[in-house]
Amino acid sequence: MAQGQPILVLPEGAFRTTGRDAQRSNIMAAKAVAEAVRTTLGPRGMDKMMVDDLGDITITNDGTTIVEEMNVEHPAAKMVVEVAKTQDKEVGDGTTTAVVLTGELLSKSESLLDMGIHSTLIARGYRMAAEKAQEILKSIGQTVTLSDTKLLEEIAVTAMTGKGAESAKEHLAKQCVKAIRQIAEEKNGKVTVDLDNVKVEKKQGASAHESEMISGIIIDKERVHSGMPKTVEGAKIALLDAAIEVKDTETDAEISITSPDQLQAFVEQEEKMLKDMVDAVASTGANVLFCQKGIDDLAQHYLSKAGVFAVRRVKKSDMDKLAKATGGKVVSSIKEFEKSDLGSAKLVEEKKISGDEMIFVSGCKNPKAVSFLVRGGTEHVVDEIDRAITDALGGVAAAVEVGAIVSGGGAPEIEVAQKLRAFADSVGGREQLAVNAFADALEIIPRTLAESAGMDAIDTLVKLRAKHETSQNFGVLVDEAKIADMWGKGIVEPLKIKTQAVQCASEAAEMILRIDDVISASGKSRMPPMPPGGMDEMGGMM
User: Fold this and answer.
1) Are 452 and 506 within one domain?
2) Which one of 17, 40, 58, 96 is the catalytic residue?
3) Distance CA 462, CA 488 (A)
4) Active site residue 96
5) Is residue 530 a part of any domain in this protein?
6) What are the pLDDT digits (tens) for 289-345?
7) Catalytic residue among 58, 391, 460, 499
8) Res 10 pLDDT > 70
9) Using CA of residue 317, residue 319, residue 325, residue 328, what is the dihedral sign?
10) pTM higher than 0.85
11) N or C: which end of the chain has fewer CB within 10 A?
12) Of all residues in the chain, what percent carry a pLDDT higher than 90?
């Protein structure tokens, strides 16, 4: 080989950014995503209008929805989107907090990198700080149980404040708490809540105040025959995972018919089979039938004659929820149907909601699955109320599962930051600077709340730090633009929101910090260093 000839390792067209440039590019991308959602934080958080490729509009201040709709391409920015998704999956609320904290941790790390501190030292310091922060958060948490209705309602109100459901938040908070208390299950002293057991149906029209929780299930279907009763009181409900139709034979068979009498007998036999199927259902005493598969037209007629309210092609997920709500069993064979398999409900009725027929199975005795009917003026309003309710349900569920809550309004962040600074003094070496940087980063939450309330951010932080020398519950009361005791004002949040946000944000920040080489394969979108203008100048990256 000739001396000085370059050795090609990467394919032609591959792009590589190394060292400080790679770190700066990644940090800038992550900060740009965090900055995009930062203004949505808190009761006076602003909304974002997202327009996709097809021109569909989403108006929201929900962190997860925003970062998902942004359609980011930069790999470091995608990691921040993952933070939001994880927070949403684990807790259901606090996504904006997690994303903003990730961005601020990376922002603080930038100044440490400029001071010449190695990124692995910063990552180690952040890890130590995150572990200590978890300890501090658990020590300041207050106990909450399923019977603390008032506290749980305050959690739901806090989760909905600043979102589209603001006008009806007290009414909706009561409904959310009622739903969680209904579906929560206690085993060995531990409470578990499966949010899949809350079914949300959205219908535009009416106002948010008319949104309601049903002690049962709403099915977006209509009865199969107009001759069936529209309302059934004292419903005995059959749940069937089998078709009420004459099956085709599985083997190829040819039936030779030589006379009209034989054809007549053949048709009558089919009719008898359908009649027998309907009789098998009706003989159990069932007056309502939900069928996961099809119901033959003639069978519909027989069911109507028997006075049975029937619905066909019900989704499997709805069948499972109906079983949990009514106490019935989903049966796969009509022959095996027994009276003990029936579920019950006070009322099954078909109602017209904003032009569409829907079936309400309500008044279930002790339903382990419930439904929410969400109403609002327009489609976009309904969607945002739905997101607010989802956040509130997630918040209440997280509170009862962990059994601990903390004050809101940035109070826990200030408290943790104060104690982390004291902890930093006991940490030797350069990691001490990273622990202090972590403490400073946490204060982005109260700082953002203060800014959105029109308060002086620095003055507010100074006052809060002074107050936290004696009380751990002081935070930013955004609505009145002052600092106040959050606990006294009923502004509380689940502890899990804070612990999960700290964990997700610190892990993502550590991972991004440790990257010093970005290699893009040939043909993939190239990622040059982030321009100083951040999001505005990112061009095709986002």
Assistant:
1) yes
2) 96
3) 21
4) yes
5) no
6) 999 888 888 888 888 888 889 999 999 988 998 998 888 888 888 887 888 888 889
7) 391
8) no
9) negative
10) no
11) N
12) 15
